[in-house]
């Protein structure tokens, strides 16, 4: 595994007197999170990170402002003859999670991130595993051919059960239930508010199924114009309509053959397409748009929605017979405000994951900031939490995220904070569990006064 095959080569770089506009255009063009800063000879002077960019923007800097005051000069550098063990150690201990690669003349050559190292080893591991599987298949003569499906455009699942971070008992029950049924091919309907992580569950179901080495194909029923949905689902033949590709195009059903088709936002599917989807599911076959050849498919259906399907059925906007087909196994992912013990767990997990991406070295949450997060109702669920953590990290840069780095709506919510009478005892107990029995921290988490906290503890006999 050669270093030049892992690193991101850098052909151009910024200089000290370049501006915020220059840095923004460079990042948009290259998609890099870190930009090397060099002199006219290519000698490294420092780096400018995405976090540096955010801090300039949030400070009100104009596009013509020079980036010089925001350049990070404490940079991890690496020569291109480094060993792999040394390389991993360098990247792991870099404050921004990235190291600059210098060529044999000491000039800027490229960038290396933790993700690129991890991805390289994962690709190597997958390649070796694939070769072993093919050898095993040949030995056992289980198949006449080990060639992959020639259809392009399919993908595989990105997440497993380990990627679903929780210590909530209800969530654990849902995971255990889905693990039991994931092995087979039963249709699964995932319900829950937007941002609760339904897509992660769909990926994890596929990854733990017998179809895990087959395609996992996603289609968002709300994101594609209605006039294009049928072609997106079932594909089309050459000349089927104006603008059609000359060779035709395989649809999502065809791409998912042997694997899983994930129908996201199924409640937004147009009614006329629902009947065609139902026929394809029941008959395990379909025709391409403009075609006359019946295509047979073997596909597991996982669907997700935040819409009240039963209500849509009464309003004649969703087919009842389609719901029966999709709803063989159904679970509802609870919103984040019902999973209080997961809020800080997820927040700290995001901090660990995002330091590399944002070029920050954030260590965690200050107690007051943690209290605001815990007390907030999270209408946008996990997606909103992640966005707020990203914002807080960009503003903080290093150290702990404090209240000043959190948006005003969290602070305003904390001022109006009261514990619901019906949930008082449960919330008190959960706060004590979350803080390992530290009453001062629990008081701050709940956003109530110390005297009120002790008064309620006495009321419910909590020692």
Descriptive notes:
This protein is α/β, with parallel strands linked by helices and 463 residues long. It is flat, with a radius of gyration of 26 Å. The longest helix is centred in the first third of the chain and has 27 residues, at 114-140. It has helices at residues 20-30, 50-58, 84-92, 114-140, 169-182, 198-207, 226-234, 252-255, 271-283, 309-314, 320-326, 340-358, 367-375, 381-396, 408-415, 424-434, 439-446, 450-460; strands spanning 8-9, 34-38, 44-49, 77-79, 98-102, 108-113, 188-191, 216-220, 260-264, 285-287, 294-296, 300-305, 329-332, 361-365, 398-401. Residues 124-129 and 132-154 have low confidence and may be disordered. Helix 1 packs across helix 2 and helix 16 (424-434) crosses helix 17. Strand 4 (77-79), helix 3 (84-92) and strand 5 form a beta-alpha-beta unit. It has 3 domains: 3-117, CBS-domain; 161-332, Rossmann fold; 338-460, Helicase, Ruva Protein, domain 3. The protein has a 5-stranded parallel β-sheet with strand order 8-9-12-7-13. A 4-stranded mixed β-sheet has the order 1-6-5-4. A two-stranded antiparallel ribbon has the order 2-3. It is built from 18 helices and 15 strands.
């Amino acid at each position: 595994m050669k270093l030049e095959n892992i690193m991101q080569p850098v052909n151009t770089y910024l200089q000290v007197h370049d501006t915020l506009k220059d840095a923004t255009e460079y990042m948009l063009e290259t998609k890099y999170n870190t930009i090397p800063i060099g002199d006219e000879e290519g000698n490294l002077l420092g780096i400018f990170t995405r976090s540096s960019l955010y801090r300039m923007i949030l400070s009100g800097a104009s596009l013509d402002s020079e980036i010089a005051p925001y350049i990070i000069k404490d940079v991890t550098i690496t020569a291109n003859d480094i060993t792999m063990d040394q390389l991993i150690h360098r990247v792991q201990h870099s404050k921004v999670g990235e190291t600059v690669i210098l060529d044999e003349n000491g000039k800027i050559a490229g960038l290396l991130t933790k993700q690129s190292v991890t991805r390289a080893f994962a690709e190597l591991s997958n390649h070796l595993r694939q070769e072993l599987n093919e050898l095993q298949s040949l030995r056992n003569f289980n198949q006449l051919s080990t060639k992959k499906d020639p259809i392009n455009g399919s993908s595989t699942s990105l997440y497993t059960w380990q990627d679903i971070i929780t210590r909530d008992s209800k969530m654990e029950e849902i995971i255990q239930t889905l693990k039991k049924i994931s092995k087979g091919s039963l249709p699964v309907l995932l319900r829950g508010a937007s941002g609760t992580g339904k897509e992660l569950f769909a990926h994890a179901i596929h990854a733990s199924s017998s179809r895990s080495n087959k395609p996992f194909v996603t289609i968002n029923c709300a994101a594609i114009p209605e006039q294009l949905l049928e072609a997106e689902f079932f594909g089309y033949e050459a000349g089927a309509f104006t603008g059609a590709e000359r060779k035709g195009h395989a649809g999502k059903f065809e791409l998912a053959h042997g694997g899983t088709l994930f129908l996201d936002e199924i409640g937004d599917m147009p009614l006329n397409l629902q009947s065609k989807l139902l026929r394809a599911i029941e008959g395990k076959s379909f025709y391409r748009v403009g075609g006359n050849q019946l295509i047979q498919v073997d596909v597991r259906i996982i669907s997700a929605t935040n819409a009240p399907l039963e209500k849509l059925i009464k309003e004649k906007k969703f087919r009842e017979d389609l719901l029966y087909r999709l709803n063989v196994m159904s679970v509802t992912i609870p919103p984040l405000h019902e999973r209080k013990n997961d809020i800080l767990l997820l927040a700290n997990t995001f901090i660990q994951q995002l330091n590399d991406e944002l070029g920050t070295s954030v260590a965690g949450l200050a107690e007051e900031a943690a209290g605001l997060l815990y007390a907030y109702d999270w209408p946008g669920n996990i997606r909103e939490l992640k966005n707020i953590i990203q914002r807080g990290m960009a503003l903080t840069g290093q150290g702990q995220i404090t209240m000043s780095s959190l948006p005003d709506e969290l602070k305003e919510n904390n001022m109006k904070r009261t514990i619901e009478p019906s949930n008082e005892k449960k919330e008190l107990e959960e706060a004590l569990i979350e803080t390992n029995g530290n009453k001062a921290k629990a008081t701050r988490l709940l956003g109530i006064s110390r005297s009120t906290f002790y008064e309620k503890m006495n009321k419910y006999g909590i020692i």
